[in-house]
Structure formats: structure tokens, C-alpha cells
Amino acid sequence: MYNNVIFTDVMPNVGGADPDFSTIEFYFMGAPAPGTWDLSMGADANYATCVHCVLLYQDVPMMGAANKLFFQESGTMAVTAFGANPNMCAGSLTNVKVIEVTIDPVTFTSTPVPGGACYTIASAMWDTQ
Length: 129
Known about the structure:
By secondary structure, this protein is mostly beta strands. It has strands spanning 2-9, 21-28, 35-38, 52-58, 68-82, 89-103, 110-112, 118-127. A hairpin with a 6-residue loop joins strand 6 and strand 7.
């Protein structure tokens, strides 16, 4: 299995005074290949099964867990290149809506929080190559 996790700060801060972080994660069964994916479809619709995953951690204290956790509900991820190192790739996110969820610590199933908050990432790019 090919795993890739890219960590980034979220600016501007979306919650309280504590910092916010996001991750872009990949879980390929074989060699990764560039492409474009609808994050609302199929396996990508839940954290337990996602191959292309976007998470936002809101208000992470220095020694603790995030106050709120968000997972993709919709939007598009495009990866233009993967490097030799698992954490080397380039791509973009477009109109990604993340909704507040809980994630089961055993099954990793993400469940929307009724009446929870949400954010939209209009566009973002990364290049870790």
C-alpha cells in the first residue's frame, strides 16, 4: 500500500486562538498515478475508505486533540505528479467543502455532526517535489 500524508497550517485561522491544521492523504493499493477525483463519490465519501482524503483540524492546543475535525463532503482533487518519495507530489483542490465529523478510533468511519460547522476551500495548490 502507498501512503502519503501532507501536513499544512491553515491560514487564516478558522476557529479560536489555537492553531488549525489540515492534511491531504492518499491510500493507494498500488503505485500512485496522477488524476482528478470527485471527493464526494465512492470510497472517497468516508474517511474509513478514502483513497484521496482532506481533513481539517480546528483549534489544536499544544498538548491535545483538535476541538473540531472536518472531512470532505464534496469538491475536486487533482494531482499532476507524484515523486519517488511518498510525500512528494503536486496538485490542487477546488471547491472542497469540509464538514464537521467524528471519526471512530477503531474503524475510522467518519460520521457528520448534526448541525455541525462547515468550510469551503475555494482553491488550494501544493507542490512538495
